[in-house]
Amino acid sequence: MSSDLSFFVLLLTDGVLVGLMYSLIAMGFVLVYKATDALNFAQGEFVMLAGIVAGAVSAWAANFWVAAGVTILTMVVFSFALERVVLRPLVGRPVIAVVMATIGLAAMIRGVAPLVFGSGMGTIPLPFDDKPIFLGPLMIPPVQLAGAVVSVIFMVAFSWLFARTRVGIALRAVADSQMVAMGMGINVPLYFAYAWALAGIVSAVGGVFWGSLLGVDNQLASVGLKVFPVVILGGLDSVAGAVIAGVLVGVIENLTAGYLDTYLGGGTKDLIPYVMMIAVLMFRPHGLFGKKTIDRI
What we know:
- There is one protein chain.
- This protein has 297 residues and is an all-alpha fold.
- The protein has one domain.
- It has a two-stranded antiparallel ribbon.
- A hairpin with a 2-residue loop joins strand 1 and strand 2.
- It is globular and about 65 Å long.
């Protein structure tokens, strides 16, 4: 295989793996939107909090599985408490109220988490060798491979949940109209809690993998902003769209960085996802795989 082709394949493979890890965070946005019809602008802070908890427990217990289990449990409890204290009073209120609540929550988590757990850089040791896996010209980091596999598993599980189960159908009904759902006997606050708990689980898993990859500190929250174009591209209500868009963004940003950074001086990897987002919004405001809605006025 020629060096040019090897370089292309390396960029492509790395882009797919990173893109699948993006989609793991993007699914947190989608889960909340599908159930509440509102964006959770604190999703990046959820990931940061999960990573900080996992790093703190890892330092104390020196066991990945204990750290992962405690992190998932912590994020589920935190999400339930958040829904009960902050979001339940907002049931039936305009969507902007939930959006503003999540923005305020994001600021609060960014400020409080370092005070409680410390502001130093933490690490999350993985339960397997962190040496790259070499397959011909490919060099695959194990954490990226594991994160990609988990992302695909979550996509299948959540797609099945929303399409085939009573809980998933009820969550979709709540998102369509909270008042109508209440009239049909659906316990809207309970399903709100379910949606936020699922987002907490996704955040916990995402925090563990991204924390292992990047290190754990309050800057980990920036991954939420990085993933936002993925959510818009795929469609706010599409789990599969989040995964496909994640791969698309990961591949394109990797290829542009690999081939254009030399000529442009760098920075294309951070810029190109937002260029893609704006381009798609101009022609498909509901995203590549989102559901087009028509409102009567």
